[in-house]
Each structure stands twice: as structure tokens, then as C-alpha cells.
Amino acid sequence: MKGMSMKKTSLFSVFFLTLWILFAPFAVQAATTNAFGLPDFTELAEQNNKVVVNISTTKSVKRSMQPQFRGMPEDMLRFFFGIPGNPQGPQGPQGPQGEAPKEEIHSLGSGFIISEDGYILTNNHVIDGADEVIVRMRNRKELKAKVIGSDPRTDVALLKIDADGLPFAKIAKDRPLKVGQWVLAIGEPFGLDYTVTHGIVSALGRALPDDTYVPFIQTDVPINPGNSGGPLFNLDGEVVGINSQIYSKSGGSMGLSFSIPIDIAMNVVDQLRATGKVERGYLGVQVQEVTSDLSESFGLEKPMGALVGETFPDTPAAKAGIEAGDIILEFNGQPIVKSTDLPPIVGVTPVDEKVKVKLLRQGKVKWITVKLASLDKAANVAEGSGGGFSSNRLGAKVENLSEKQLQDLKIPFGVLITDVEGGAASKAGLRSGDVLVTIDFKAVRNVDELNKLLKTLPAKRSLPVRIVRNNRSMFLPLILEK
Q1: 106 among known catalytic residues
Q2: Is this prediction's pTM over 0.85?
Q3: What is the domain range of residue 240?
Q4: pLDDT digits (tens, 9 = 90+) for 270-287
């Protein structure tokens, strides 16, 4: 019995040893993954650092006055030193025709090669105003670059160097980014060439001030001055964005970095290569966000779409019949979730192309067709007396507007709010100086009409109110208490 027991134990030992030999590699691999949980970036960096380039620029500017001359009378400077430009001064002219001398300012940035024949992508602000642009390759070879074109609105610039057979970056196509996805940047922060940093996608579709045509990719990748224009890679080694901006109080990385989506950039590239300039679609509306209160007043189950606060005259929107108060839900087959979704979609839509627009008008879905114009060619649209009135129901004092006031405001009708006393007007966010145009899509042509209208409107229900504030049209939700 004792021998039999030992034999069984031996067989079991052989069996478990065999299983261990077969499955140990997988067990070790799983343990490694669980222990670290991070991808290996070494191969990704090694394969792509040769497509990243250093960009240095030179710009000539007028030399500022030397510290020892500051505070001296300008006439004396002109006579004795020729500063800033007296050809008769004893020291002679300081430059052409006595102009102040110029000095060269140098700056650094990043870029990346997108074709084997030498096309390079970078930021517009990297090369803006430069007299000379030099590209330094991975092998330290330096080449003078020609600026094919640039687009300040998207901060994209296209360069060309005289070279062939170059390695070039793979551009991501039809592979949408997701929040939490790993990304990697290669660039020249503070001139430290080929620096690799990594992080995750923090948010998508970020709208920044003065950058309404770019839905930025936000990441926590450490980006610093000098990274501008460099590529942002996914784990497949494809470029998904161009590193463009950082948010920082110190000038260094704070984990808030913003990149231009590569599809936006490549749309610009295609136009720059074809014509040397960018033509952007123009609709002709002013939009605002649909808040939860406004969504209720417009009959929506949840906030969505872009609310048209104003349609500018003689624009594609006006010709197509888009009206103030319409909520654009879909444009050219793409859903509009937030108001900031609309401008970049309109911007990349070809000019003179007819597109379908889905909108909500007074609770009913409507489809219209609009033919976009060119933004650069579009008209530059500039973004009372008597009849005192006080309404306890509205909680505001109003008065009629003169014809001249209406013409100056570029609106056909409305009444001026002179004082907000409280109640419904205050809760809705109305202010003194606002011009009340419509309530619940009903026109407010004068004080008398407003008085009559207020008597008919329902209480305790959110009603959309259109106003003009600082020459801009917008909607607010109004709830009458009684």
C-alpha cells in the first residue's frame, strides 16, 4: 500500500509537471501584463523617430532700442546717433534710408514627413512670418524648406524640401480615437531633439477660444515649447494628430495638451497642395449650446444639437430657409451633438456642394437642402422711445425701439429691456439693455404686443425667449410663474 501510494504520487507529479511546461509561458506572460499593464513603446519610437524633423526659422525684425538709450530725447537720438532714422546724424544711417537696424530672431519647432518626395507638416505658428525655414533630419542633414501654404484658422502649414526616397509617416484613416487610448508624441521640446513622451487621450472634440474650426484632441501627453508641429501617434504607429497647444500657467507641461485631428489637417494639406490656399465652407448662422432648460422649452428629451440664435442675411442659411430658433441636429449626414460640432463640419464641407440638414423647428423635424458659400468670400456680417411698460408677470420694464435703433441692431422688431426687477426675467437671465425679440416663437413687435402676449402664455412651462445682447442673438429659457 505504501508503494502504491508513492507510485500514484509520482504519476500525479509527472502530470502536473507536464502541464506546467506546456502552460508556463502563458502564465508568465499574463503575470507580466498584469504586473505592468503598460504597452512597450520602444519599437514604436524606433520606427517613427526617422519621420520626425526639427524645424528652425529665422525672422528679421527691427532692433529694439538699446537700454543705454532709453529715456533720452528722440531729437537727440536722431541727430547724434541716427536713431531711429536720421541720415544726417554724425553716426550716419543705421540701416537702409536711415532706418533702425534689424536683428534676427530664431525659433524652433517640430514637424513630420508625410511623403517620400519631401512634403512636411507642421503648425502655422511655427513658420509664421519666417524669412527662412530650415529642416534638420534625423541624420543631422539640414535642408532649406519652401512654404507651400498655411492656414491660420487650423494652425496647419505645409512645407516642401528638395529630397526623394524619404521615410514618411503613416496617416491614420477611418480609425476613430477613443478617450483613454494610449498615444505617443515625438518632438523637440526646448530644442531637445527626438524626445519621446506618452499619455492617454483625455477628451475629444475640445473647442478652444478662437479655434472654432478645430475639434481638438486633448491628451495628458507632456508637451512643451518646441513640440509644436510634431506628430501624435497611436499604438499602431499611425499619426492621429498634430501637437499644437498647451494650457500652462508656468510655460511648461501641466497635462493639458491639445492636438489637431489628422483628418482636419489632411483636408488642409490636400487644398494647399492643389491650390496653395484653403477654401472653407460658410453657412451664415450664429449658434449656441442647447442647455437642459432650453431643451425642455424646445420639446427635446435631452440637450442636443446647435441652436440657431441668428441667421445672417444673404447667406446660404438664409437662402435655404434656416431660421432663428431652429435646432440643427444633423449636417451632411453627421450628427450634431453639441453646438461646437457644427463649425468644423461646415468648414470641411466643399463649397458649392448641396448638403442635407436635419433640424427641429417648433417641435417638428424638418429637412432642408443648403448650398455652402466660401468663408473668405462671404460678406462680413457685423456680428427707442416712448411706451414705458412694467409687467409684474415678466418682472422687467421695457420700452419701444425707434426705427434707427432697429436698423442699427439689424433686426426688424423688438423691445428694449430697461430694468430687470426680479421674478421670471431675472431667473431667465435677462438683463437691462437686452432686446426682447420673440417669446415662444411669437414676435414681440412693440410694448403693446408684449403686454397682450404675456396674458396668453402658459405658466410654469419653459418657453424659449430670443434676445439680442451686445449685437448678438441668443435664446434663454423663460418660466412664467403665474
Answers
A1: no
A2: no
A3: 170-275
A4: 999 988 888 888 898 888
